[in-house]
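Exercise 7 asks you to align residues with tokens for two separate proteins.
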Amino acid sequence: MRSTIYRYGANAQLFGFEDPILEVPILNQTLDQYQKAVCAQCGFQIVDLNNIDELPEQAETLWYFDAKLVFTAAFFRAAQEAVQIEKGSHFQFGLDVLPSVRQHSLPTEPDLEVRTFPFFFRRKDAVSKLERIDLSGKEFEWEIDMPTQIIPSGRYSLNQNAVFASLLLSPFHLLGANMALNLNRSLPFQEKLPEWLRTRITKPFTRLTSFGLRRMNQKGRNCRIHPSAVVEGCVLGDNVTIGANAVVRMSVIGAGTFIADTAVVSFSVLGEKNFVSTGNHLVNSMTYESVFTIHGPYQYSIFGKNSAVFATINSDIRLDLKTIKIPTEQGVHDSGQLLLGVAYGHACKIGGSNIIAAGRLVPNGYVLNPPDFITLKFE
């Protein structure tokens, strides 16, 4: 018989996109489905509360969390282990701010070095003050080379850690959570390797790396993949089409999505029935269903359902190399990110040759016509 964990705030919405929070996509399933699956892995079933005041007072122990929280089974298990060791009766859990957390679990408060989440454990008749426990898992290092004009260190972290959580205060937080969980798909494979081999296989663009990534591929039914396409480390839904000389690497692709000739999709999560046009690039990005993109590149960005972005310059960096600020339900926050793109709302249409600055949120349904220097008619 499963134990109970309580979830409160299920009626909330994702700021900016206004989705019911439990319907936002996590690796192409709903957050509700994801949370229930994670809790089931840990031996728990979710019971929803209208508000936190409805927690049962007589229970010997209580686990409870905010519905806006994404967390892994490893995070929950680490929390369970911690309460067996720590003295006290009332705990709130956070994460040590390791590179994987700093990169993908965007801040929820002004202090960039703190990640505390609404995930709690309480014993009956708790008398001690609320104590914070920061959890930490094994960090798997994975860095790629970057130009120093963009990243002064010349290295960009794509570290993975099974102990992960993120609070969804904006579409950018949702993007980061999906990026982390997508990368974490490689952990069961990496954990089996000795360190010397793991280090070699995580170097990009080697034959050994390509071999390892191809072994991760999962393909749905009726996929059509051109013989010249490169597909590595991917999960493909049913009826996915990938054209000639396209590159799809370390990504999750929703059912019915069409990726045209020479397009590149890497480290991304695409929803169902997307259309990625010829020669386009989607990197470290996330899309909902039925998104159309043409003439990128689009990087570190999230696209709402039924959105269309036409040859837009999608900025993802500040030239002064300061970290990028983003709108959240709690106001404007520093994301702590040097690279972060644009959040395109549901059903928005962005005309060609527009330039959108990093960290901007395009409202749902917004239509941005081409700029004035574009010829719109002839006399």
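Second protein for Exercise 7:
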Amino acid sequence: MHLALVDPYRSASARAVAVRCRDGSTIVCPDNGVSSLAWAVLGGVAAVRELTNTELWHPNAARSFRGRDVFAPVAAHLSAGAAFERVGVEVD
């Protein structure tokens, strides 16, 4: 499990994703290119899901603290054994 985050607050933030790599690793990150070199080293991308399941987020998620309120809680759930498919909808 890896969590990578460079997500400056903007009016339109990059979508939040979980990337399952071909070696079995998972990276939770914004879809802004910050992790593209990492997943290349980990064998490439096997599946990607957008972090749309708000049940896995902090209960009072703030728009400006996505690292604390969205990315970190989802990474923690996955590390604790939550199914990858549970984080949200599949994307290309």
